[in-house]
Amino acid sequence: MKILLDECVTKRMKPYLSDYEVYTVTEMRWNGLKNGKLMALCIDNNFDLLLTIDKNLLFQQKIDKFKLTVVVLDSLTSKIEELILFIPSFNKQANTFEKYKAYLISK
To answer: What is the 3-state secondary structure (H, E, C) of the chain?
Structure first.
């Protein structure tokens, strides 16, 4: 599974997702892009999943118009100490994600 970590997700999360092919927005040189453009680039570059903590994305974008799975971690902060608490739940659900849908993951 090819995953893009959104700008709001610390790059320090990447080692905790070592079972997947993970890239950061910075690595892709996509910093500062609006969500719609970012999602379109994900599709153009064969990403399977966008991982974010931006809950507004669920309401600001018509997720079903993009051929991309979006996973939102239900976190109050972007601190790595908080985000790694979502890893077990993410890993448990990763194989069940349906294509082109959005998911909100709790700890």
So the answer is: CEEEECCCCCHHHHHHHCCCEEEEHHHHCCCCCCHHHHHHHHHHCCCCEEEECCCCHHHHCCHHHCCCEEEEECCCCCCHHHHHHHHHHHHHHHHHCCCCCEEEECC
Q: How far apart are CA 33 and CA 13, in angstroms?
A: 20
Which domains can be identified in the chain, with CATH numbers? Answer: 2-105 (3.40.50)
**If you search the block for the tokens 């970590």, which residue do you land on?**
5
At 40-54, the pLDDT tens digits run 999 999 999 999 999
- Contact between 61 and 39 under an 8 Å Cβ cutoff? The reply is yes
Residue type, 94: A
The model carries a pTM of 0.92
Q: How far apart (Å, rounded) are the C-alpha atoms in residues 60 and 66? A: 13
